[in-house]
Design brief:
With 152 residues, this protein is α/β, with parallel strands linked by helices. It contains six helices and four strands. Strands 2-1-3-4 form a four-stranded parallel sheet. It is globular.
Amino acid sequence: MNKIKVLFICHGNICRSPMAEYIFKDMVEKAGRAEDFEIASAATSTEEIGNDLYPPARRILFQKGIKYGYRKARQITRHDYGYYDYIIAMDENNLRNLKKLLGDDVDNKISLMMSHAGYHRDVTDPWYTGDFEKTYNDLIEGCTGFFKELEK
């Protein structure tokens, strides 16, 4: 069986998308499905390339018991579009930037994270709000909804 390849996207790849990556990895591991997935994250910008997970994002994951590791932010590439089955953006700006970087979503791989939870809204950006708890809760809802969709 081929692995289901999921790529989470945010602006800088230091807060929301890596949080989603680790939350979803935790979710599939607890469901006994870790071997069925390849999960990663990337940015639409080059601003944070090479930087690790932002410390407050690391803190909330630690508080919630979600495993994480050292990583380096990277920007999405055209190769990623062909490689990943699902590309999940954290907000409308990410969707616009993805279109600029990748062109049209001809394979219908790109979605908005909160659409998987039944909403058409952005994941709260803690870089601006400072509210990592709210972002965590959004990501739990989005990842849970996405996982349920895959289970159907």
